[in-house]
Design brief:
The chain has 220 residues and is α+β, with helices and mostly antiparallel strands. The protein is built from six helices and nine strands, in the order ααββββαβααββββα. The chain has two domains: 88 residues, no CATH class; 112 residues. The chain has a five-stranded antiparallel sheet. A four-stranded antiparallel sheet has the order 1-2-3-4, covered by helices on one side. Strand 3 and strand 4 form a beta hairpin. 29% of the residues are buried.
Amino acid sequence: MMYNGNLSLPQQRRYEYSLKVAYKLASEKLRKMDIGEVCRRSGAVYWTKDKTELCLTFLKHKYIIKLSEIELTSIDGKEQESLTLREKVLILHYLISEHVIPMTGKSISFKELPEGMVYYPTFAKRTIDPFVKEFGGNPEGLIKAALKIGGREAKYGDVSVSIDSFPFITIVLVLWKGDAEFPPAGSIMFDAGIAGYMSTEDITVLCETVVWKLVKASNK
């Protein structure tokens, strides 16, 4: 699931292949699961009376999961809401999580996740660095961008926003404006229960997805 925008062509092909394999494996697992239990744990709901399709909210938009083929589509087919393969894998991984624990109300940073200290440099490069680069000099733009993707203002740091990425997963992005002595800085926080829904790698992908959607919304 890890991604580097500077991958060579062979690396890119291997990455795309790994995504296809991850999608296939997650699809096979979902087919074997108790879908009622999946809905209870994930916040998804049955979309059809015959219970052959689910509906799940991901970053404000609703998507349909056709269980017979594990096909994911936008609820209204709008192009801007279409999913990349990486996002589809992320959604499936959220749905098939079997070690769910209730949200705790305790906020943690990436470093506090399992193996978070080890992977933090990669996480920061892919998420916090572009986040601070885009909004460090434009903190007001962060709030405007968050509102466009279904987020809201929060009360951390100098400026912060809260983004409901999945029904039970909220991400908080925090920005400090900086001054003459210190440059702008940023942080990303989540409820400690997130580790019960996603691997540290998938959390990285999710945060990277949120950051780039904010950047895109800011430049519209």
